[in-house]
Amino acid sequence: MDGVSGIDEAGLERLIEAFYERVRADAALGPIFNDAIGDWPEHLNKLAAFWSSVMLTSGRYKGQPLPAHRKHQHRLTPALFERWLAIWAETTDELMAPDAAVALQAKAARIAESLQLALFFRLDSRPISRPAPATDHLHRSVLP
């Protein structure tokens, strides 16, 4: 059986190889990825394991995506995530069956959203100003 929506290990490996070849050549993403990754074959194996775990529930991936991305947070922007997703959509549409491409694109969009929330979303750290109470007797201490 091929797995979820016609996705199998061999197909994921071909997809990851082709996708990251495009990412590495991309004017916006290439410099960031090429600076961050020292051993591309090892990294591609890790990414294939990640997508295998995500799409096929294989449990092969043992890493932590958020800390890996947080190391490069100073270079990342929401626009770069959009560029990554666009290349992912283009590559999955070309290499995968339509149902598989849709499933992979939907999962990538959710993962990108989660990463962006973790990397970029910050609650306002200023204290909330509250009006002073109308009467002080409501807030007096009852300690002896």
UniProtKB/TrEMBL annotation:
GO terms for molecular function: heme binding; oxygen binding. InterPro entries: Globin-like_sf (IPR009050), Globin/Proto (IPR012292). It comes from the Bacteria. Gene3D superfamilies: Globins (1.10.490.10). This is Preprotein translocase subunit TatC. It comes from Sphingobium chungbukense.
